[in-house]
Structures are given as structure tokens and as C-alpha cells.
Amino acid sequence: MVIDPRHLELLHLFDEYGSVTAVADVTHRSPSAVSQQLRQAGREIGHALVEPAGRGLTLTAAGRLLASGGRDVASTLARVQAQWEGHLGEAVGEITLTGLPSALTHLLPDALRRLREDHPAIDLRMDDVDLAEHEFAGLTRDVDIVVAHSLVAERPIGTDGLTVVPLAREPIDVALASDHPLADRTTLTPDDVVGCRWVGVPRGYPFDTILTSIEHLTGHDLDVVQRIRDNRLIEAIVASSDQVALLPRFTTPRDAGLSLVPLTGVSTTRWIVAVMRPDTAERVAVRAVIGALSRVDDAAD
């Protein structure tokens, strides 16, 4: 018996995406066609590869074994493709990228200029998302490069098994209205800000770990009156009130009635990283984009 590589690819996709509907969406097929192809693969191989599970299907032990083989085949093909591109010396093709707006604002302008100058044959397609730290890894199923961040370590939560490349380090400062009583300080400590009214981010977002650290160090709960994702909205609220927030140093405008003051006594530097599937990271064009984005020495400037 010769195993059809197309069956391995389908099983790999089913294992990764978890449902017939999701595989149908990503492969532009109908759910009924995907179900039929999964069963057809089982008939040709001579073993059941999927079985009912609730209202859907799940892989059998045989299906999981072949899905793992499909993952290996995909990685090998990507590595060979990357080696061939390297042999030809070409960085060409469409690369998809998505990530955190504040990180992309810092990295993309210079990166796009470098790509235009050095790799004009790369077609970079971009989108922006703002997610909890553990959610960025899931985007690598559909996107070549995901720009994420973490305040805990270079590797964001949930990225085990993926390729993570540090791109930049950026301090997170306390943002205050320019007429706030603390705005003229050169630095602030947790004790200085524990009594402030805060505009925070949703729980699970990296900046929230700094607020948690302040609470642990001071022994007091912070008064977080709002939890908002969008930095531009946070800036507007802070500039027009006595509330304070945490904002990235390099991409927060200073001409909007804001002051940024460094916070000492807790870790406030975020790692901005590129997260990719290992096979995707092998591509010459992907490596060229990562090189253009990389500014790992930022925090030392």
C-alpha cells in the first residue's frame, strides 16, 4: 500500500484545526466534501481514521499517527522549498503578517522601507489584532508571521513548538496627563502610583502583569476604573482626566497632552517577538521580512 500524501495533508489539517468545518474553511471546500475525503482516505488505507465524537468527528489512533506524519511531510517540503529558494538566492512571494498594533507601529515603517530597497519582490500583506498573550500562537495556523509581545519572557505563553524570534525590546511607562501632580517626576515607584485611578487592559493582556506586580509589592489593590484594549482611546482618556495608564514608550505620542514617566521597582520591559510555524520560518522570504523587522537593541538606546 502506498499512502497518498494528500491524505496525510488532510489529516494534518484536521488534527491542527480540530473540526471538519474549520478544515473546509481553510481549504475552500464544503464540510461534506471534507468528511467524504476523510472517510475515503480511511477506505484506501484500510483503517478507520476518524470516528464520531458528539456532533463531529475525531481522529482515531491510526488517524493521529498519520496526521503526525503529515506534519513531518509539510515541514520537510517547506525546508526543501527554503533550501531551493536559498540556492536561487531569491526572496520572493507573498508573506502574510499580523500582530499587535503598537508593536507594528514601532517596527513596520522602517521595515517596509528596507524591504522596498532590499527585497522588492516580496509582497507583504498585513493585518492588526489585539489579543491576550496566549491567543497569538493560534494565528500561526493562517498567517506566516505573527508579531506578539510578552512582559514575562522572550517566548509568549502558548508558543511551545513554534519558532520565536525576538524583534525588539520596549519599556512600558506610566502615562499621565501633562498637568497631573506626578507628571514632572523623573521616575515613579509602585508606592507613588498605588493610590491612582487606573485605565488598565483586559485581564490576560501582558500590560496587566505590571499592575499585578504593583499590587503584590505594595499589598494594596489598584483602583482600575476602566479596562480598554485600544491605546489611542487610553491616551485620550488619560490626557483629559486624572487617571493614569501603562503605555509603550516608543509609540505613544508626546504631543497629545501626555507625559510618560518610567516606573521603577518592577519589570516593565516588553519583548516584541515574531512567532511562526517552524516550516514557515525556513522560507527565505520570511527570513528577509524578519531581518527587516528586527530591532532587538531598542531598549538599550
Structure summary:
The protein is of the alpha/beta class and 301 residues long. It has ten helices and eleven strands. Helices cover 40% and strands 23% of the residues.
Question: If you had to describe this structure to a student in words, what would you say it looks like?
Answer:
It is a single chain. By secondary structure, the chain is an alpha/beta fold. Helices cover about 40% and strands about 25% of the residues. It is built from 10 helices and 11 strands. The strands form 2 sheets. Strands 3, 4, 5, 6, 7, 8, 9, 10 and 11 form a 9-stranded mixed sheet that branches. The chain has a two-stranded antiparallel sheet with strand order 1-2. The longest helix has 28 residues. The radius of gyration is 23 Å and the shape is elongated.
